[in-house]
């Protein structure tokens, strides 16, 4: 009799587990990017479509575009509590919760595309760094390369010396703010969604962002000057709530992660192609003027800044691990 009860209990447990994943799970994905016009938007759409297809519609991804669920900081809090399942969160935002991510934001860390690829696909980043925020209710499981950032301006600039008189929007990140100060500009922290109107109204004179934004996000309509500093390569991390992992089967979770790994690798080459094409279109259509500078001289200004990452106990391990990969 006891054996029959045990068998019945196990059978009911198996049936209950199966029923948990029997109905399709609809997962919420938050991003502050638009669905069209940017590499991030195109790849997030591809991710959502492939998840549905490759899980035979057991899992669906519903994307909330253009910051409709709030700023990155706001929807990251909802990811932590499990209200939202996925989200695109920049490394600049993440460093405020996981300081180790700030190493990825160090100026002139990546000299080549291969440097970036080797670091982002390394065991350290894919496992150790990605899981470093688990105690905060979320982990990263992929990335979308956002390319190199430079300076765009509504006012004429001919050299780095001209930037000292300008108010330049910065992401709300200690690393980004300090980097811009070292470059010689006056950084103004501001959410991405507020930048365009702030530049229109003269609240800020420019921003540090990809030069492709002149075309991709129509900044060329209000700003026609740029300096190609390429001082940092921004990474958008794709993060997932810990609670989300209980909504799908282990097999479907593996499928989701493998799709994102493919998307991540694809983003590196796509963003390079997109930036080249978009910058040329901005120059042709908006008459954008872009100044090239001696980046080696600029990089030398950051030697003491690098040492601060090596000495800081919150960033030392990440700094040493990434420097070892680069060497």
From TrEMBL:
The keyword Cell inner membrane does not apply. Keywords: Signal, Transport. The keyword Signal applies. InterPro entries: DctP_fam, TRAP_DctP_sf. Residues 1-24 form the signal peptide. Pfam families: DctP (PF03480). Transmembrane segments: none annotated. Belongs to the bacterial solute-binding protein 7 family. This is TRAP transporter substrate-binding protein DctP. The lineage of its organism: Bacteria, Pseudomonadati, Pseudomonadota, Gammaproteobacteria, Vibrionales.
């Amino acid at each position: 009799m006891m054996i029959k009860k045990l068998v019945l209990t196990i059978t009911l447990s198996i049936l209950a587990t199966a029923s948990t994943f029997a109905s399709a799970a609809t997962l919420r994905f938050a991003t502050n990017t638009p669905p069209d016009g940017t590499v991030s938007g195109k790849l997030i759409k591809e991710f959502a479509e492939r998840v549905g297809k490759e899980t035979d519609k057991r899992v669906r991804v519903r994307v909330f575009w253009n910051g409709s669920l709030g700023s990155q900081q706001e929807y990251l809090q909802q990811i932590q509590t499990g209200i939202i399942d996925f989200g695109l969160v920049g490394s600049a935002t993440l460093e405020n919760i996981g300081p180790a991510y700030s190493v990825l934001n160090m100026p002139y860390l990546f000299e080549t595309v291969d440097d970036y690829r080797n670091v982002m696909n390394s065991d350290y980043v894919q496992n150790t760094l990605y899981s470093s925020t688990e105690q905060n209710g979320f982990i990263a499981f992929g990335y979308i390369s956002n390319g190199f950032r430079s300076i765009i301006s509504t006012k004429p600039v001919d050299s780095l010396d001209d930037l000292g008189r300008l108010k330049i929007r910065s992401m709300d990140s200690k690393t980004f703010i300090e980097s811009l100060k070292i470059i010689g500009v006056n950084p103004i922290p501001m959410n991405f969604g507020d930048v365009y109107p702030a530049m229109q109204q003269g609240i800020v004179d420019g921003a540090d962002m990809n030069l492709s934004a002149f075309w991709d996000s129509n900044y060329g309509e209000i700003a026609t000057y740029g300096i190609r500093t390429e001082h940092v390569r921004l990474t958008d991390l794709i993060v997932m709530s810990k609670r989300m992992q209980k909504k799908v089967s282990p097999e479907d979770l593996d499928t989701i992660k493998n799709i994102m790994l493919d998307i991540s690798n694809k983003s590196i080459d796509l963003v390079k192609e997109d930036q080249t094409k978009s910058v040329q279109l901005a120059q042709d259509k908006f008459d954008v003027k872009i100044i090239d500078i001696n980046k080696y001289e600029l990089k030398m200004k950051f030697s003491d800044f690098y040492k601060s990452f090596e000495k800081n106990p919150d960033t030392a391990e990440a700094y040493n691990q990434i420097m070892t990969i680069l060497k």
